[in-house]
Amino acid sequence: MIEKCLFSRKENIYTERHLFTAIHDVLRFVTVHLPTTFSTTDAMAQSNGVIKTFEIPTDGKGATISVRIVEPAGINSDNLSLATWASSLVLAGILHTLGLEKCLQSKTSLSPLPILELGAGTGLVGVTAAALLGSPAAHLTDLEGTVPGVAANIAVNEKLLVERCGPAAVRAGVLDWWKPERITYLDGMEPAEISSGTKARILLAADTVYDEEHPQLLERVAQEWLEKSPLARFVMCYPMRIAYLDHIRELWERFEVAGLEAEIEGRQTGEATNGDDELLCEYVVWKWKDL
Ligand SMILES: C[S@@+](CC[C@H](N)C(=O)[O-])C[C@H]1O[C@@H](n2cnc3c(N)ncnc32)[C@H](O)[C@@H]1O
């Protein structure tokens, strides 16, 4: 299964690896200074950022929700400026096809935390999932430096989120994969933190596999936070950048050894964003085996 999902040009992967890493790092740096190439229905340049409106499909019949995303200048963490990456656009666009509503239907066994997004960035995926599923709670997390940007995007989508989820259902918090035992919230609301004793029914992660440490960190976060229930799902999407194929392969190996299996997998080419060319993105819905 792992071999099937990755390119087979193993020798070339190794010889090209450093070149691609270097090119990608340069592209990421350059995007801080270049205007976005997203097509949007409402793109408004602001003195210190950009607001984009994404029309996200909610069924196969043309219905959409409008999700507004601010990419404020000056917010950086993990050497990245705050931006919406191709795989989060792909994942937001296909969320309605993944059957996730069934995960939140069982009220009796509903986890205290229905949706938890990791490495949320601008929060497009988490905001979309919360609105799409009408989730009574969705917590969008990232490193401390990025959380103000996530919070800004929850705020600009307040009307949509209140209508679909209820007040204060969606929060931004710090969940550092190196210290995954707790989420800390900076919004002044209670509780100010929760521990991983609280499990999540749906984990979401877009473009979070780009470093050699990420496979083991994400496996640990899954062990800490993903509810051990047949309804629990870990939904991922990542770009198939050649430089990262080894990390993706390791992630698959670790997740399978940890007791997860892929329920749904597929690929879609993402729009060019942030200086990347069009990118083939892979999405996977993981669930616990044998539950
Ligand atoms: C490439 S960005 C993807 C952002 C967003 N999911 C998207 O697709 O647009 C990777 C995100 O992972 C976050 N991240 C990296 N290392 C992390 C860590 N140790 N703990 C939590 N978040 C981390 C970064 O801050 C960044 O927001």
UniProtKB/TrEMBL annotation:
One of its GO terms (cellular component) is cytosol. It holds the Pfam family Methyltransf_16. The lineage of its organism: Eukaryota, Fungi, Dikarya, Ascomycota, Pezizomycotina. InterPro entries: Methyltransf_16, SAM-dependent_MTases_sf. GO terms for molecular function: S-adenosylmethionine-dependent methyltransferase activity. This is Uncharacterized protein.
